[in-house]
Amino acid sequence: MHPISAILGSVALLLLGGGLLNTLITLTGNDYGFSKTMLGLIMSGYFAGFTCGTFVSGRLIQRIGHIRSFAFCAALCGSVALLHYLWVNAWAWLALRFVYGLAFVTLVTVIESWLNTRAQKEDRGKVFAAYMVVNLGAIAVAQQLLRLDTGEAFTAFAIAAIFICWAVLPITITSRSQPHIPEKASSSLRKLLKFAPLPVASALLSGLAMGAFWSMTPLFAQEQGFSRGDIGLLMSMTIVGGALFQLPVGRYSDKHDRRKVLLTLCIAASLLMLITTFATGLTSLIALYFLWGGFSFALYPIAVALLIDQLHPDEVISGTTDMLVLHGAGAALAPLLAGSLMNAFGEHALPAYVAAVLLVLGCYAVLQIRRVSVLPAGENAHFEPMVQTSAEVLEMISKEESEPEHEEARAEEAKQ
Fold it and tell me: How many other CB atoms are there within 10 angstroms of residue 381's CB atom?
């Protein structure tokens, strides 16, 4: 792991700052009196920027290189974090969140393309697992940084900016050569809609659910009177639950019908969200969200694995990239929808909204299972835990899936 230690160090610092900032903006915006609808729109700005950035980040990196792109975007993200405190205006915050999303996806693309290049065939699984552990671990720890808030909003924004700026240090001192960014794969969304409608729907609807969680759950907890430390604990434990459950749930799906596993997760997560509307104490809410995170965080990666089951290896990169864009589009729309509902019906509209989205996905899964008894597929893909990411890490997964087939082809050629 030594060749990638600097990269993982930058990941940890970047997500410590970014994870704190995402939660902080929701809480501080509410303190400033922004409406829930406006807060939802502001938080949608980040996901919209992130999704749009997937189409332009590669061009920037090809033009000025990995290290300069990383330094440029980290400086932009750090300054944007501080501007939230200096420029208290809802529409300005919306623009800042969009810019932050554009810059942040470029940072992620730099990191993941570097990891993709550094990962040898025999170590690819370990590299990917280490990246996911650092990713989720840093976001979970970041929520505890809310406890450092002294009551002055500037303190927390400054801490977030400092961590984002520090993320430049490990990656800029590396002596490793910079990787090549491949051309973006052409879209295959129309084709996917015809033969893989369930994975496509799962990507979009899981984005509608998870975008609401990341953006509006801090507000949901704040409206119930919890302190920032308690809110940080709630968010952290949800992320921990998601991290702990993903691998065993995913490995189970490798050996069973993924559609039925997806259906079970949707039902369980939907029921848990409905129960949270009746939970009053912090302990019970944390327990419910811990379990909910365990079930819901696995939905998108299972959808990706379900899609790969039905794709030829040459189609995996374009297909999974389209899934990423759909998930991002759902996540961009989610805060606005959830915020509007919370503005109209109160904070308990958030869990009701998330439960409804997951229930719709579950119902659609039932229809697909009844309509298609057996999916056209080759050898099953292996589940890989993941969060919202860039197309570069999806290429790492596609390489791992396609290598056995390529090795068999080379063996056949050798025999001939």
Answer: 23
CA distance linking residue 217 with residue 142, whole number of Å:
15
Q: Among 124-128, 233-237, 351-355, 366-370, name the one with the lowest average pLDDT.
A: 124-128
Length of the chain counted residue by residue: 416
Tens digit of each residue's pLDDT (9 = 90 or more) over 69-108? 889 999 999 999 999 999 999 999 999 999 999 999 889 8
Closest by CA to 306, choosing from 392, 185, 195, is 195
Residue 387 parent element (H or E): none
- In this structure, what token pair is assigned to residue 140? 């979970």
Question: Between 282-296 and 258-276, two packed helices, what is the crossing angle to 10 degrees?
Answer: 160
What pLDDT, on a 0 to 100 scale, did the predictor assign at position 329? Answer: 92
CA 56 vs CA 59, 101, 107, 121, 376: distances in Å: 5, 12, 12, 29, 34
Measured distance CA(326)–CA(201) in Å, rounded: 9
Check: CB of residue 305 under 8 Å from CB of residue 257. no
pTM for the complete prediction?
A: 0.85
Encoded amino acid at 98, one letter: F
